[in-house]
Design brief:
By secondary structure, the chain is an alpha+beta fold. It contains 2 helices and 4 strands, in the order E-H-E-E-E-H. Helix 1 runs parallel beside helix 2 (about 70-95).
């Protein structure tokens, strides 16, 4: 899995990179076919945003974004949203017929 972390109006520190990496690598529990993840961290005046695009197998892209007053809270919310979306995506792919 290739992970790209960029920051708009913010310098991405080593602590932020480690935190994002630890949260995003948890997504591999649900889907083995994740090839590329792009994470963009932005800072507006009083609002911090985190958004991500996950390229799953079969040409599927999953997008999620989250905003909060704290960047770490936004990253937590983003990882939770991506987690739920990947679970739904995986359930759609499996056949429920007996």
């Amino acid at each position: 899995m290739q992970l790209n972390i960029t920051g708009r109006h913010l310098n991405v520190t080593a602590a932020l990179k480690d935190y994002v990496t630890s949260k995003i690598t948890r997504l591999e529990r649900h889907c083995d076919h994740i090839t590329n993840v792009r994470v963009v961290l932005t800072v507006d005046k009083l609002e911090q945003n985190a958004e991500a695009i996950v390229h799953a197998g079969g040409g599927h892209e999953i997008f999620a974004d989250a905003a909060s007053d704290d960047l770490y809270k936004a990253i937590d919310a983003l990882s939770d949203k991506l987690d739920r979306q990947l679970i739904r995506h995986k359930e759609k792919l499996t056949s429920h017929r007996v």
